[in-house]
Amino acid sequence: MNSVRSTFCIGIMVVSVFSCGRTHGAELLIGTAAADITPDRPVPLTGMKTVRVSEGILSRCTANVLALESRDGEKVLDQAILVSCDLCVIRSMRSRCT
User: Fold this and answer.
1) Own/partner pairs for 38-44, CB < 8 Å, 24+ apart?
2) Which residues pair with 62 in a beta bridge?
3) Dihedral sign, CA of 50, 56, 59, 60?
4) How far apart are alpha carbons 30 and 69 in whole angstroms?
5) Domain range for residue 27?
6) For the segment 37-67, what is each residue's pLDDT rounded down to a tens digit?
7) pTM for the full predicted model
8) Total domains present in the chain
9) Which of 19, 47, 76, 77 is the most buried (most CB within 10 A)?
10) What is the average pLDDT value for the chain, to the nearest integer?
11) Cα torsion at 70, 72, 76, 78 (round to 10°)?
12) Has residue 45 been placed in a domain?
């Protein structure tokens, strides 16, 4: 089911890029990536009334990326990057890194 949904979404985005008048004759570059982001230790679970800590892995968590770029020769016309993560919350790491 996920591959069907991904193919459908990519198809819609490709049609969107090609339907723009200024991309006539342009080439479309598409890149994808996926990574396993499942924690390797117990973590607090989000979305419950009380704090629960994971006791094991029921299903792996992934991050998926789709990058689109339209070009006319060497000139970049449009760019888009879409990120999808199996998470409820993405907290800022800025304060932890500095």
Assistant:
1) none
2) 36
3) positive
4) 7
5) 2-87
6) 999 999 888 777 888 898 988 889 999 999 9
7) 0.60
8) 1
9) 77
10) 77
11) -40
12) yes
